[in-house]
Structure formats: structure tokens, C-alpha cells
């Protein structure tokens, strides 16, 4: 193998979401199955104490771990990180998905 994908290798799906959070799993790493380009592993939402954004103290917040696994023959790691940053923004402020 030369580490490259043939067109036949890319027919079918592109992205998978794997949710083990509904079983109480905090975080996990999912494995990309061809022809998928990436898979998002979603962990359970939970309440944790976090520092306030203004730095004046602490508060409870709902937090969730996600892990993005990418096939680097298809998606550059930097592009995956950019996508994950946008996903984080949408999860923290869901109304922005409507804009």
C-alpha cells in the first residue's frame, strides 16, 4: 500500500457518530472504518464544577468529552482540529447553529 485511497475506497459513507454516552461512558476513542473519513466518539454529559469565564469564582456546568478520529489519507489533522473547534463552539452556544 502507498497510503493513498483509490476512488473505489471512498464510495459510501463519509462520517460516523458513535455515542456511548448513553451508557454512561465518559470518553473513548472510536476507530475509523473505511470508507468513512472520520468518526466522532461522544461521551456522557455530566455536571462538573468549573471556573467562571470572568474568573470571579466557580459554578456548575454540563460538560461532555468528544474525540474525533480521522483517516489522515482523507482529512489533514489540522482540518480535523478546526472542525472540532467549530463543533465545540456549537455545543457551547447552540443558537449559533441557526445563524
Task: Tell me what you see in this structure.
By secondary structure, the protein is α+β, with helices and mostly antiparallel strands. 16% of the residues lie in helices and 27% in strands. The protein contains 1 helix and 5 strands; from the N terminus they run βββββα. It has a 3-stranded mixed sheet, covered by helices on one side. Strands 3-4 form a two-stranded antiparallel ribbon. A hairpin with a 6-residue loop joins strand 3 and strand 4. The radius of gyration is 17 Å and the shape is elongated. The N and C termini lie far apart (44 Å). The model has no long low-confidence stretch (mean pLDDT 91).
Helices and strands in order:
Elements: E1 15-19, E2 38-42, E3 46-51, E4 58-63, E5 66-70, H1 77-92
Parallel strand pairs: 1-2
Antiparallel strand pairs: 2-5, 3-4
The gist of it:
The chain contains one helix and five strands; from the N terminus they run βββββα. By secondary structure, it is of the alpha+beta class.
